[in-house]
Amino acid sequence: MMIEITFPITPTYDYFSSTTSMHPRSYVRASKFALSSFALVIAFTWWYFNETVKTNSMLLIGLILVTSHLWYAEGFAAKQYTYCRRQFLQMQDCEPGSTRTTQVKAFLQIFKAVAGAGAFLSAFRSDRAEAIGTLPEFKRFPMILQDISFNVPDTRADSNTLNKLFLDRCRSIRKEKNGDEVVTFGAEVYKSPKSFYPGVSPFSEDGGHASVTFKGLKRGEDDSIEIVDRGNGLQYLRLGVEELRISKGIQAGADIKSAYGWIDLNTPGTVPVEVVVGLARDPVMFACIKVNNMAQSTSFFQNDLGMSVRPIPLARTPGSQYEKQPVKGEVYVSYGNDSFGLLLVPRDEKEKGAINVGTLLEEFTILVDDEDKNISDSLPAKVREAVESATSDKVISSPDGYRFRLRKYSDFVKVASSKIWEQ
Questions:
Q1: C-alpha atoms less than 13 angstroms from C-alpha of 1 in its C-beta half-sphere
Q2: pTM (2 decimals)?
Q3: Number of domains, the chain
Q4: pLDDT one-digit tens code per residue, 171-211
Q5: Pairing between strand 234-241 and 272-277?
Q6: pLDDT-derived band of residue 264, with 50, 70 and 90 as boundaries?
Q7: Same-domain status, 352 and 241
Q8: Distance from CA of residue 335 to its chain's centroid?
């Protein structure tokens, strides 16, 4: 008698072995997931801290859509692989899900990938709307602090002093019909020349430099000149330069007060200047002014002039003994991290009475974009009135009496200098 024993050829299904065993593709999926997650974190951090990119939300939207597509695609593939492997071990056909559901999911993933790529690329369109010029540092800025002006007896003397002190890096670029002289450390226009290469060319060959205007005092019939009151409002004008020659400045008329660490000096017209040997995109970094009420002044600059509170810019590394470090209670306001700004310092508690702005400091000039009509609604009310008015300029005074002239950008570009500084 023969007994035939047969064994089932279908392997026994082991849930743990079918789902937890690590396939080589799983390592690839895990690596791609980790890399895409890391890329999204880096992209979001860059977007959050970069002032130029932060205003362009299309870039972040594109990054999120593309990264989420990668995440879902990897998860969907892993799910399909695990399901089919399980069905194979059970000798069943691999038919995960319904056909219609799979097609809808695939369509949604394709749409997310295409939309994300389109949003990402649209962030770098060359024809997108600009505000003040086309420089990356000032894109999407509808306003910019561009000039500070002083009343001095001899405009040529002050201009020549800065020119000699900074070894011809600071030059007189324009002399107005009324005798006013405008000096800068580079081209005024807010666009880069074709010869400028980022990371290679010096900042002096780029555009977007703030200017300093020296206004001549009117002489009387007996050739007398009005006495200038320096006041106690303006503390100094901070300049950050790579090199200077003190002896040349003294020969030209500079009055050196101190030269330990940084240089404190007065021009022949008694304009207080603080010079730091360091690196700054534009040597005209900021003007330090004293305010009576810090909260009221900060609110004025933010709400009435559209500035924002930012970290105090430095020309050297933080903590350097060769540059005055930020002090608690000071507030820095500007339109961008790389643009000319204002350092607000509270007055001494022992001082009484209102801030005396004096007559040495004439005014500040703020450029307002009047070419893009889509941004007019985002401007502060007083600024919007100035842009929509028929007059060319409008002056707004701060609570302490500092004057700010609002100038239309279309009027500025007619006279702005595009001359490139040759080293």
A1: 1
A2: 0.69
A3: 2
A4: 998 888 778 999 999 888 888 888 888 778 888 888 889 99
A5: parallel
A6: very high
A7: yes
A8: 7
pLDDT tens-digit series, residues 39-90: 666 666 665 555 444 445 555 666 666 666 555 555 555 555 555 555 544 5
Q: Which residue is it, tokens 């890329």?
A: 39
**Same domain as 66, residue 165:** no
Annotate 76-92 with b (16+ C-beta within 10 A) or e (fewer): eebeebbbebbbebeee
> CA separation (Å) from 357 to 159, 209, 213, 287, 354?
23, 25, 17, 13, 9
Q: Assess whether 71 and 209 both reside in one domain.
A: no
Contacts for 193 with CB less than 8 Å, ≥ 6 apart: 187, 205, 206, 207, 418, 420
Cα(210)–Cα(335) distance, integer angstroms:
13
pLDDT score for 203: 84
Task: Copy the structure tokens of residue 55.
Answer: 């205003």
Q: Is the pLDDT of residue 130 over 50?
A: no
- Copy the structure tokens of residue 77: 């593939």
By the 10 Å C-beta count (0-12 exposed, 13-18 middle, 19+ buried), 311 is classed as exposed
The whole-number pLDDT of residue 14 equals 45
DSSP string for residues in 169-218: SSEEEEE-TTS-EEEESS--SSS--TT--TTTS-GGGSS---EEEEEEPP
Domain that includes residue 398, residue range: 136-412
Q: Is 147 found in the same domain as 246?
A: yes
DSSP 219: B
pLDDT band, very low/low/confident/very high, at 308 (cuts 50, 70, 90):
very high
Q: What CA–CA distance (Å, rounded) separates 61 from 121? A: 11
**Helix, strand, or coil (residue 341):** strand
